[in-house]
Amino acid sequence: MAQLLLIKHAKPVISTSSSRWELSEDGIEQAAKLAPLLNRYDFDTIFSSEEPKAIHTARMIADELNRQVEIKKDLHEHDRHKNRKLYPEKEWKSVIQTFFDCPNDLVFGAETATDALERFDAAVKSVIDGRPKHQDMIIVAHGTVISLFVEKYNSVNVFELWQKLGMPSYVELDLATFQLQEIINVD
Fold first, then answer.
1. d(CA 176, CA 1)
2. End-to-end CA distance of the chain
């Protein structure tokens, strides 16, 4: 049974535009620790969003496991680069809770939760289409869109799942049904 792994990138250096964040020194070390955990899966390519923190995470894993990286459009995080504000942690969690609770409302950024999910869902399925069904699929992406995707196909609390996903972490899903098998946090 093939698996779909949705990996949340390693820890970035936080600046004003989250879509441009690079991995921190800790993030580089974390990504290297993630690689051996993926050795048990059958894959030849790691797919990544276009954001630097995801690309760098994917490349760190690929280098360790001698795999290739393919960057794909529309696997990026919820589009929040416009009017970006850095919130204190408690306020940030409240904003994210509202984002998940009101998926059709534009809570912040340039997309609703529903819009982000539809984009990400289509992108994941386009990565899967045309690939061998027996092969595991590995995608490096972002916590919010991963949480939305997992919730669409499983009975989970999206906000609680989002909170559980560390940097880096991954969810293992059945490739055919997208049923959640496991959540793995590296740290």
1. 8
2. 27
Q: What is the pLDDT of residues 138-170, one digit of tens each?
A: 999 999 999 999 999 999 999 999 999 999 999
- On the question of pLDDT at 20 being above 90, the answer is no
Note the helical H segments in the chain: 25-34, 52-65, 89-101, 113-128, 143-153, 158-164
Average pLDDT score over residue span 36-51: 95
* Percent composition of the chain: helix, strand, coil (DSSP 3-state, to 5): 40, 20, 40
- Residues with Cβ within 8 Å of 152's Cβ and at least 6 positions away in sequence, in order, are 117, 121, 178
Among residues 76, 68, 66, the alpha carbon closest in space to that of 142 is found at 76
pLDDT in tens, 69-112: 999 999 998 886 655 556 667 887 888 999 899 999 998 888 99
- Report the 10 Å Cβ neighbour count for 166: 17
* For the chain, counts of helices (H) and of strands (E): 6, 6
> Under a CB-based contact definition with an 8 Å cutoff, are residues 117 and 145 in contact?
yes
Residue 35: how many CB atoms within 10 A of its CB?
16
